[in-house]
Write a structure and sequence with these properties.
single chain; alpha/beta
Amino acid sequence: MSPTLRALPLSLIDAPPMPARVAMDDGKLQELMQSMKRDGQLQPIGVYQVGERFVISYGHRRFEAAKRIGWVELHALIFAEGEFAADAAKLAENIYREDLSAGEEALLFAEAQELYKLDEAGLCDRFHVSADYLADRLRLLSGDQRVFESVLKREINFSVARELNKCPDEEHRRYLLTVAETCGYPARVIADMVRQWRVSHAPQGPPTPPVEPAAEVNAPSPHRVCCILCGGDRDPYNLININIHRWEWERIENAIRDQDRAQVDNRGV
C-alpha cells in the first residue's frame, strides 16, 4: 500500500518508541530550526497510525525543531503500521543525510529483526546493506555495554569500539575506554594498546629445565653470597637484592673499570 500525504497537527504526533537518533546535537538542531524558519518544511516526515494517533518512523529531528519553532502542524507520509518501507526510509534518510551513528544503526537493525522476524539476508535486502556491515553493527550490541553506550553518546566512533571489544579483559577494556574517551585516540592506537596487553598476558609455555653448569676449578661455594661490585662476602646481612637489566649492569661494570683505570693512571703521573 502506498503511503498517503497529509498535514498532521503536532498534537497528534508521538515520538518514536525507539528513536533512530538517540543523541541530537543541539547546535545542528538550531541550524535545522533556522533552515525551517527560512525555507519551510522541504520534506515530509514519515509516520504510521496507531489508533487515533501517529507515531514517527523518520523525521524525528524535524518534529522536534517544529515544536521548538512553535509550528502547529507538519506534512507527513502516513504508512500502514509495520510497513517495511517506513523503516527502510528511516535508515536511508539518517545514514545518508543525518549522520546516523553506528550504535543507532545497531538499534534500528535489532528493532526490525525483532519486530519482523527477519534473518540476516532479509535485513540486508530490506536496508540495502552488506552482510559485513550488518554484522559489524549488531556485534556492538553483543559487546561491552559501556562501549556501546559510549558509541551512542558519540564519545567514541565505531572503529574505536570495534578495537576495544577485542580486549578480552573487562577491567583493562574499561580502562582503555576511559583513555579513548578522554584522549580521543584513533582506532589504530587503541588496537596497538590491545595488542600490547595480549602480548604481555599471553600464556607462558612450560618452564625450561635448569642446566647444571660445568664444574670449575676454585669455583665459589653455591651458598656463598657476594657483592656484585666488590665481589666480597663480608657482612652478608648488609647485602640487598637488586633487579637490573643485563645491559644496564654492563654499563655499570664498564664505568667501574674506567674509573679504576683512571685512578691507576693518576697514581702513575
